[in-house]
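Researcher: Next sequence.
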Amino acid sequence: MADHAHLLFELGTEELPPKALKQLSESLRENFAAGLAQANLGHTEIESYATPRRLALLIHDCALRQPDREIERRGPAVNAAFDTDGNPTKAAEGFARSCQTTVDQLQRLETDKGEWLSYQIHETGKPAAELLPEIATQALNKLPIPKRMRWGDSEAQFVRPVHWLAFIHGDQVISCEILDAKADRLTYGHRFHHPAAITIYNPEDYTSVLQDLGHVIPSFESRREKIHSLIEKSATALGAKADFDPDLLDEVTALNEWPVAISASFEERFLEVPQEALVATMKGNQKYFPLFNGDGELMNQFITIANIESPKPEIIQQGNERVIRPRLADAMFFWQQDGKGRLEDHLQTLKQVVFQNKLGSMYDKSERVASLAKQIANAVQGDPDLAYRAGLLSRCDLMTNMVGEFPSMQGVMGRYQAIRDGENPELAQALDEFYMPRFSGDQLPQTKTGIAISLAEKLDTLVGIFGIGLKPTGDKDPFALRRTALGALRIVREHSLTIDILETLETVSQSMADRLTDKDVVSEVYHFMMDRLRGIYIDLGVSVDLFQAVAEVAPSNLADFDLRIKAMSDFSQLPEAESLSAANKRIRNILKKSSEPLEDRADPSLFQDDAERSLAMKLDELTPKAEPLFERGEYTQGLQLLADLREPVDLFFDQVMVMSEDATLRNNRLTLLKQLESLFLSVADISRLQLQDGHS
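Model: Next structure:
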């Protein structure tokens, strides 16, 4: 298209931070696109490129200039623009001057709010070449760079020193200077394979020229796919499966422009060390991809990605094997040193490690967690003594050399060391499960001992931190209490535990009563957890009003809460639900207005209307059938029975004056309504349901 052409923008730098590269690239694309939209420069697809030494964009069919446009400027109202003699006022003359015209050239604009002076201005679109430098500058300025740096004697600031700028629209270079780099049509290939400059004549040739001539794969995604393919091919050749950690794959992609897979190995003796520690050092320190056999066991082989196609790959292989050896030797040393003692040997050391100044030492916390875990184990039919011991040992692995070197091994090291100590297998597994779930969507503890100590730990942390006044505020949550609450709720809910959370929180509060300053801590933590629980149910598709209907009656445990949610969800689909919900709203409002004490049961002898008698008879018929169902947790069946109340309830409100002037009649009718409300409150407060046409 004659009025459009492809646009290339490439900023060449020293090696960009690998963990930030993908985000920088995505942000540049978004910012540049926003700038083009604001400048009204049309385009089609935008392709983004990112390598360790460049951030680039290829914008397809970018307009060569802005379109012309007509701008209608509105001036003062006509009645304010002219005096009684029809002469223009200063307001009219000022508006005309601002439009660079005269009053007699102004138009009139009629609206439903009156008549105004106006003027049509024809604005000629600017060439893209004039606008693009500022668009690019602003896009770069908005990149998420925590700390910018200067280089040489330049005043420019960026995440890394800038070495070149290619900025081409169609066949023309955009004349500008950005970050002290003058725009040109030159790019640079691989640092070793093609260090010389490469001329880009057409933006659309950028990818092929860089790849074919420069030994650079500019597309982050293409490079990532190639690395994945190379690793998979190498692993298959070795009869292995690779650990395709997405974060590691992204980081390695950000470290290479021309990836080449190299297989290497280490001595089998290092496999004596827990494989999690070996994996941690291979991935975290060396950016290697560990390999596993068909049984999921770590092999003494790994794959590294080199950023060069070497004629002697064996030299790269040997170099990587040489580099990893001392790290694995360190891991083995720590493992062997830790094996000279037992986990319980570290208990006394925990007394010298502060958990939180006001909440005592790690040892104090371990004792509290152990005691609570014992009670929870009883409630979940676990082994209380095993849970108590697991709680005591839960933090001991933090004192090991292994966790000191590899923090990600906390819990995992506890499991390995407990097995080495000859502890009960369930206790050993529980020490790993103690930290579960570690993140959103992570697996939950599965053993009863693991459930007990993990839940005890989370509830102790919530009550303790809230109790000393350090609850989360806004987006600040330094103790990760939101995540802790979600983890506790997931454990209780997904394992259908019949634990009374409010009662358990009270127990926790009493265990550290001498340390807490907030006397309402139990209530605050409970409501904090309920807010998180609401989020869980909303994510599952449960409406807020349905959740609140159940929350209003504060079920004693989450298993029961879940049953009520399901029952209310079914009830809300019944044709009778809307009418009964509206009736309960009305009942609640009526009862709020009455301050007189009411009986437990209405007196039939005081009924004066057939509608009263009909409702009372239906209540007497259904109550003995529904209450046993509610007591057994069969809420759905119970609510289906109560749906039969719709007709007598509607009739009652149509024909009966509840607030009679006769106090005796009035109180008897209020008592009847209270009976009705109480029956529904056995499940939930259905007055909170927001229903339309019988559906929530």
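Model: The chain has five domains: 4-66+127-212, 72-120, 221-338, 345-541, 563-688. The chain is about 45% helix and 15% strand.
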